[in-house]
Amino acid sequence: MIEVKDLYKSFDDKEVLKGINTIFEDGKTNLIIGQSGSGKTVLMKNLVGLLEPTSGQVLYDGRDFVQMSKQEKVMMRREMGMIFQSAALFDSLTVLENVMFPLDMFSPMTLHERTQRARECLDRVNLIGAEKKYPGEISGGMQKRVAIARAIALNPRYLFCDEPNSGLDPKTSLVIDDLLHSITHEFGITTIINTHDMNSVTTIGENILFIYEGHKEWQGVSADIMQSTNKRLTDFIFASDLLKEMRSLVNEHRAKQ
């Protein structure tokens, strides 16, 4: 479990995060949603230590990440997996070598054991036949699956995903969502996903945090989000024409009850 307590972050005189209090739960897909500029990315960067909070706490199972020494933070990051928006694969390395990279850096395993572990992770994301290919030779969806395989190679307790469906078609996005959701439950990981994808919200959002102008505006589960009376949340959720039509249908349904 990751607990955030009274978290503030400012850049010069601009306050971006304003007293965030929230819990990201073990074994669940925890989603952070909000408009561009709301503070989602800044919050995630504070969680993983890429930014230092102005004040507040980030507790990993009771351990305050903010107060840890530099060496303690390095050790803590070995419990984290990261999936970046662009997949961030190394173009000069094969798919297998990309997945092996964190193992080569941090694992005491032998070369044979590291290779076997990387192949297990590729098999888990249904890419075992692509291990000799280079990132430029595979699709964007396959690249994201390689990124997932690399992120779980070290058996992380915490998995952070920054817009994992960015640039993907709807069908491939569903594949990535299903993969992240199943891996989260299979390994009991605390998964945190920054997303604008409302399909992700409605299908895998087990714990959803909505940030508005730097503060926590709403938190709940996907089953409740369509019934919410929070105007800022509903304005965000139903921003597209399709979702506006869905909201109209929901309102009609409410009126008949």
What does this protein structure show overall?
The protein is an alpha/beta fold. 42% of the residues lie in helices and 23% in strands. The protein contains ten helices and ten strands. The protein has helices at residues 40-48, 70-77, 95-106, 111-124, 140-151, 170-187, 198-204, 222-225, 231-237, 241-256, and strands at residues 2-11, 14-24, 29-33, 55-60, 63-64, 80-83, 158-162, 190-194, 207-212, 215-220. The protein has a six-stranded mixed beta sheet. A four-stranded antiparallel beta sheet has the order 2-1-4-5, covered by helices on one side. It is globular and about 60 Å long.
- Per DSSP E runs of 2 or more residues, the count of β-strands stands at 10
Q: Summarize the helix and strand pattern as letters.
A: EEEHEEHEHHHEHEHEEHHH
Calculate the terminal CA-CA distance, rounded to whole Å.
38 Å
Radius of gyration: 19 Å
Mean pLDDT: 91
* Unreliable parts: none
| Sheet of most strands | 6 strands, mixed
Strand order of the largest sheet: 6-7-8-3-9-10
Quickly give the CATH architecture. 3-Layer(aba) Sandwich
Q: How much of the polypeptide forms β-strand, as a percent range?
A: 15-25%
Query: What's the shape?
Result: globular
Helix content: 40-55%
Which class do the helix and strand fractions yield? Answer: alpha/beta
Under CATH at level 1, the class stands as Alpha Beta
Counting DSSP H or I runs of 4 or more residues, the number of helices is 10
CATH H level, superfamily name: P-loop containing nucleotide triphosphate hydrolases
CATH topology title = Rossmann fold
